[in-house]
Design brief:
About 10% of the residues lie in helices and about 20% in strands. The chain is of the alpha/beta class.
Length: about 425
């Protein structure tokens, strides 16, 4: 799913600044990690645990291709609000904007441990589209065809025509389009929010700026943090794929569950997987432990919900597959964690977005789960984390969760029975 970007010179436009990082978020200390885990500048994945990128589309590959928005440092978004002749807005533009901000900026600041300073500039008025909503043919499969007179290209073209004299698109990394929530079906019936990320859409502004990384948000989600539909969409512009099954391969059971908003972003809040935090540049090299050699290693993990410490252990299985371990406990962004422990997952950079590129291992197969009362949460994986005394094995790798030795940390013994390079 995807986004748009712009800069405004009119005095009627408000600028919101994300709160400054806390001292704890700025001082991200970590336990010692193997030199093989060292990433590039800003903690970007590198070395034997960084999976090969095979496509220019969103993926789990370590290298995000050019064209996507940067995901650390200061990131600027321009946010527009639109309504339609047959679906006029029933609330003020400020009310619709307040459904997402400053919550989205606060979420990214917390999840990134202060490494992402997200700033949104709203154009605080409804931009009325020229035609009825239905005439644009918006559906889940609607495209961005700059040569057509309907779909997302038609809506984006009208927005650009309306604001081009007052907005410098070159100043922005992302574009957000928030539609009046009464346009189209409720999100509980049909989720239509989408992002067009990475490559140029084919639409240019008058000053020659390519329109790209554009997110369109429709209706409203349910749950205690409905703004996260925008964090999901913006994350596509940062290079993250959909983790759930899409299209004809859509399965009844989620592959990741409520452990990352790229799978489930409805209901109670949930944080990003540590693998995604590494890919986005939110972890320092010393916060990633790379287990690339045969033998047994003991790793100590601190929960993703708190700053500092080792956040991720990676066991490469091939150039495109890896096993990951992270500690998950209830915290500021992880509201629904009911079985704290070590979350084990397999990551594949050779599986496309929507083809389950990440799959969570279930420590309690066959159970109903421990968070069973929220219809927005797939319950069977809510008790997926491994606890002390439990083991997991796959493709020559065995993981044993060890007893706690220090409050607030989790230990795992990882044994490699052979080196990386075999096919996963």
């Amino acid at each position: 799913m995807k986004i748009l970007a712009i800069a405004v010179t009119t005095a009627t436009v408000l600028a919101l600044s994300a709160p400054a990082p806390t001292r704890a978020e700025e001082q991200i200390t970590a336990s010692a990690a193997t030199p093989a885990a060292l990433g590039g500048p800003g903690g970007r994945p590198a070395g034997p645990c960084a999976l090969r990128t095979l496509t220019r589309a969103v993926s789990e590959g370590a290298r995000t291709p050019r064209g996507y928005a940067r995901s650390s440092g200061r990131v600027r978004a321009i946010t527009f609000l639109i309504d339609f002749p047959d679906a006029p807005a029933r609330i003020s533009p400020r009310q619709r904007y307040a459904e997402f901000f400053p919550a989205v900026a606060d979420y990214f600041r917390a999840s990134s441990y202060g490494r992402l300073d997200y700033r949104s500039t709203p154009v605080p008025r409804w931009i009325r589209m020229s035609r009825p909503y239905r005439s644009y043919g918006i559906s889940r499969a609607a495209s961005f065809d700059p040569g057509g007179d309907d779909g997302y290209a038609a809506i984006a073209r009208e927005i650009v025509d309306d604001v081009d004299e007052e907005v410098d698109f070159g100043r922005y990394d992302l574009i957000n389009v928030l539609a009046t929530p009464n346009a189209g079906p409720p999100a509980t019936q049909d989720v239509r929010s989408v992002t067009f990320a990475g490559a140029p859409t084919g639409l240019e502004t008058d000053d020659g700026v390519d329109v790209r990384n554009v997110s369109f948000i429709w209706s409203r989600q349910t749950g205690d943090s409905p703004y996260r539909v925008l964090t999901h969409e913006n994350a596509h512009s940062f290079g993250l794929p959909d983790l759930y099954y899409t299209g004809h391969t859509r399965a009844r059971r989620t592959p990741v569950g409520h452990w990352d908003p790229m799978d489930e972003d409805w209901g109670p809040s949930n944080d990003f997987l540590a693998w995604h935090k590494w890919k986005l540049g939110w972890l320092s090299p010393r916060q990633v432990d790379c287990v690339a050699r045969p033998g047994t290693r003991t790793v100590t993990l601190t929960p993703t919900s708190v700053p500092g410490g080792t956040k991720l252990a990676v066991v490469p299985l091939s150039r495109t597959r890896a096993l990951t371990l992270e500690a998950r406990t209830r915290g500021r962004l992880d509201h629904a964690v009911c079985r704290p422990g070590v979350l084990v997952a397999t990551v594949a950079s050779d599986l496309a977005s929507g083809a389950a590129p990440v799959r969570t291992a279930d420590a309690t197969p066959g159970s109903r789960g421990c968070h069973t009362t929220d219809p927005n949460v797939a319950p069977h994986l809510t008790d997926a984390p491994y606890r002390p005394g439990q083991r997991f094995s796959t493709q020559g790798v065995t993981v044993e969760i060890l007893p706690h030795t220090r409050p607030g940390t989790y230990r795992a013994a990882i044994t490699r029975h052979r080196g990386p390079g075999h096919h996963a």
